């Protein structure tokens, strides 16, 4: 992932040069826009493949990693939900009591881990953590994101907000797990943006375009 991030400004600069050169050629030859766009996409994909191969980057690993984590997250959520006496109707008996200690094992306003949060504090915190992660990841995208990147970013924003009412219907035990997971991701994302941490872990520095964008946004 770090190598792919470091190559982003190189690919962006090359793409702008490609658009200019191909645009001039197509204007001289009088070709239509669809041919121009198709040629740019083919050349860009070939360049990306060439750069990733020469720098030993594997985008499939970065793409598959979240999908490997999703089953674990779902399994943990369903397990905790069952222990709290809140199994899904088609996955367990809803009349079963919560595990010993869930009724009074919490703290502060959420002493009952088998009950939902009537104050909405935990659900809102979960939604905020997820939304913060979406925005942090958006900072790693170039200043001119693609259409698909914009669509997925907005989709994840909607999902982050949707998690608020969903978390309000879940027992506090699950909310604690979701908030811990989201908070850990926030801390991890922030830490990986610190030059000292990246140097310590021998990660490549962030692209200059990303750093500049973070300064402008802050």
TrEMBL record:
It holds the Pfam family 60KD_IMP. Residues 41-192 form the Membrane insertase YidC/Oxa/ALB C-terminal domain. Signal peptide: none annotated. GO terms for molecular function: membrane insertase activity. The chain crosses the membrane at residues 63-84, 120-142, 154-179. Keywords: Membrane, Transmembrane, Transmembrane helix. Its main location: membrane. It is found in: Membrane. It comes from the Eukaryota. GO terms for cellular component: mitochondrial inner membrane. It is a multi-pass membrane protein. One of its GO terms (biological process) is mitochondrial respiratory chain complex IV assembly. The keyword Transmembrane helix applies. Belongs to the OXA1/ALB3/YidC family. PANTHER family: CYTOCHROME C OXIDASE ASSEMBLY PROTEIN COX18, MITOCHONDRIAL, OXA1. This is Cytochrome c oxidase assembly protein cox18, mitochondrial. The gene is COX18.
């Amino acid at each position: 992932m770090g190598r792919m991030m470091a190559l982003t400004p190189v690919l962006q600069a090359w793409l702008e040069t490609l658009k200019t050169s191909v645009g001039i050629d197509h204007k001289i030859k009088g070709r239509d826009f669809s041919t121009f766009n198709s040629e740019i996409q083919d050349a860009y994909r070939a360049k990306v493949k060439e750069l990733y191969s020469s720098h030993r980057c594997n985008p499939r690993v970065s793409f598959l990693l979240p999908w490997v984590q999703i089953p674990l997250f779902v399994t943990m959520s369903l397990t905790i939900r069952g222990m709290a006496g809140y199994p899904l109707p088609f996955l367990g008996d809803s009349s079963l009591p919560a595990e010993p200690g869930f009724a009074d094992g919490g703290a502060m306003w959420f002493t009952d881990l088998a009950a939902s949060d009537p104050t909405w504090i935990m659900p809102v915190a979960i939604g905020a953590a997820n939304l913060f992660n979406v925005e942090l990841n958006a900072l790693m995208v170039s200043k001119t994101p693609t259409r698909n990147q914009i669509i997925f970013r907005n989709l994840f924003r909607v999902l982050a907000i949707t998690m608020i009412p969903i978390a309000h219907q879940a027992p506090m035990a699950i909310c604690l797990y979701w908030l811990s997971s989201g908070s850990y991701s926030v801390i991890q994302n922030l830490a990986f943006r610190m030059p000292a941490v990246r140097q310590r872990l021998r990660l490549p520095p962030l692209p200059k375009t990303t750093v500049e964008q973070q300064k402008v946004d802050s």
